[in-house]
Amino acid sequence: MELKDIELPPTMQRAMARQAEAEREKRAKIIAAEGEALSADRLAEAADVISAHPVALQLRNLQILSEIAAEKNSTIVFPAQFLESARALARFIEEESRRATAPLPRLDPRTAPAGSGRPTATGAREPTQPATAHRPGHAPFS
User: Is pLDDT of 11 > 70?
Assistant: First the structure.
């Protein structure tokens, strides 16, 4: 059987066009929803990083300001929160540098073992115990 030159009624053509448009809208909504889900996952990961490292938010703010300044030659008004952010960043850097240069713990002289020759609590050196040869049955040298 061979079909040639078929004419569809205008109502059927409109119905088919509406169905095709509905299908396109459906696919667009699905793609948008998948994008929103991915975006939510990324935001959750970013929130975890920021909660673990509060300075990360401050650095992100500085990065955004730097991008604005690079794009346009304009005046940037810093909110009051920015000053606190700068102070927090300075405190963080100071704490990290202190941790990196912290001296090793020293032995407390009051807890030094006896006869070690280490300073006593008064600052005087404790005498070291001499190595004596002691034979059984003989009195040690005095």
Answer: yes
